């Protein structure tokens, strides 16, 4: 190896240590991004896998279908028999749960998860 071709690792560490502050920050940002981006990507994949394919009476759930279940229970308790009486205010999932009750009557729908059906 000729002198100047490649620095051994310990010389590179010394080179970083004596670099100007702006350059050190840039190097550290690069190292952080190299580690952080794959970690966040893995977290996103795991989260997506856990929340994927969840439905409540053929309506897609975002996380745990609790809004759909609440709307279903509300419609059941209030004996709602027409979709026009379902409140379509702040929560789309609550509304969809109410619609599920109206369309299915007293038959309680199943929550489908990635691992299989579960009764709410």
End-to-end CA span: 69 Å
* Radius of gyration from the alpha-carbon trace, in angstroms: 27 Å
Number of domains: 2
**Structure class:** alpha+beta
Helix percentage: 40-55%
Order of adjacent strands in the largest pleated sheet: 2-1-3-4
Instruction: Find the count of extended strands (DSSP E, 2+ residues).
Output: 4
The global form is rod-shaped
Instruction: Provide the β-strand percentage band.
Output: 5-15%
Low-confidence region ranges: 113-120
pLDDT average, as an integer?
75
- Count of DSSP H/I helices: 4
The main sheet comes to:
4 strands, antiparallel
What is the helix/strand order?
HHEEHHEE
Topology:
Blueprint: H1 9-17, H2 21-51, E1 55-56, E2 59-60, H3 66-77, H4 92-104, E3 111-113, E4 116-118
Antiparallel strand pairs: 1-2, 1-3, 3-4
Description:
It is a single chain. The protein has 120 residues and is an alpha+beta fold. It folds into 2 domains: 9-51; 55-118, no CATH class. Helices cover 54% and strands 8% of the residues. The protein has 4 helices and 4 strands. The chain has helices at residues 9-17, 21-51, 66-77, 92-104, and strands at 55-56, 59-60, 111-113, 116-118. It has a 4-stranded antiparallel beta sheet, with helices on one face. A hairpin with a 2-residue loop joins strand 3 and strand 4 (116-118). Helix 3 crosses helix 4. The protein is rod-shaped. The N and C termini lie far apart (69 Å). Mean pLDDT is 75; it is low at 113-120.
List descriptors.
single chain, 4 strands, alpha+beta, disordered C terminus, 4 helices, 120 residues
């Amino acid at each position: 190896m000729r002198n100047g071709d490649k620095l051994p690792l310990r010389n590179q560490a010394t080179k970083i240590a004596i670099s100007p502050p702006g350059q050190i920050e840039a190097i550290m940002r690069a190292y952080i991004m190299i580690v952080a981006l794959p970690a966040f990507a893995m977290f996103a994949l795991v989260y997506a896998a856990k929340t994927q394919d969840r439905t409540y009476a053929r309506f897609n759930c975002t996380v745990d279908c609790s809004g759909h279940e609440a709307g279903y229970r509300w419609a059941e308790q209030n004996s709602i028999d027409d979709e026009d009486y379902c409140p379509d205010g702040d929560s789309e999932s609550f509304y969809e749960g109410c619609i599920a009750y109206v369309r299915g009557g007293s038959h309680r729908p199943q929550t489908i998860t990635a691992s299989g059906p579960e009764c709410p």
